Amino acid sequence: VSAEPADAGELLYAEDLPVGRRFEVGSRTLSAEEIKAFAREWDPLPFHVDEEAAAAGPFGGLAASGAHILAVYVRMTSDALVSRLAILGGRGVSELKFLQPVRPDVALTGTSTISRNESTRPGSALIHIRGELVDEGGEPVMLMTGEMLVRSRG
Amino acid sequence: VSAEPADAGELLYAEDLPVGRRFEVGSRTLSAEEIKAFAREWDPLPFHVDEEAAAAGPFGGLAASGAHILAVYVRMTSDALVSRLAILGGRGVSELKFLQPVRPDVALTGTSTISRNESTRPGSALIHIRGELVDEGGEPVMLMTGEMLVRSRG
Prior knowledge:
Chain A is an alpha+beta fold. The first copy, chain A, has helices at about 30-40, 45-50, 50-55, 65-80, and strands at about 20-30, 85-100, 105-120, 125-135, 140-150.
């Protein structure tokens, strides 16, 4: 299934979210300054905030905090998909993997794919959304599965 | 096992992280302004950025973004525990649950507990850290399990 562009449209209910439906959610590049600024606030480890320490550290250079990588994807999918859903609430994340260090100045591109759609009680469904960020070579850097409750029409 | 205060100390290797070892990682209260400012940047959904829309929304009031709640815990455990580890890198999160909406002006208190410690190759171990944030009544608002590789002495 090829990804559809995430254009604005009508509110999406559970019935509009068949397993396999896939959304392009955008691209973003983090500068070294952005990586360090986020990490100073939320994850001030040497390899996220200091380029010299990072060069000598486990990643061999500056790498974004996992919390930052997740936030980048959340912003993309919030704008392009979740804001269009008849959402009742988020439940959490059942999987989140950081597959490669995220370096400065690499464009990250996101997709969100419906991976499960299960009626819970009348009027709502549990929707799983598989999120992926890939680098410029198409290699995944982050995979996650988010769970949310979405209203159904029926 | 009662939690130990997270005081600065020597670098912690895999051998220092038996299953069940538990660390107090701090407390933090988010104001309505902080909740809205984070969400404007990373998760601009109406119930995270606008108090009137939030009152009419699924949470019946302003609630912090899940990305924000995670970042609050990451900051606590980064300062109190991860900065002390002989870390080789994070691998991801195998579970992340948001159990209750996080409202403004509620103190969140964190703990980090070693839940798995498994040698991988010589010199390193896969460590699982179970993170919890509880509210002022001791009710959990977030649970997560983070996975990281930590050097061993042996």
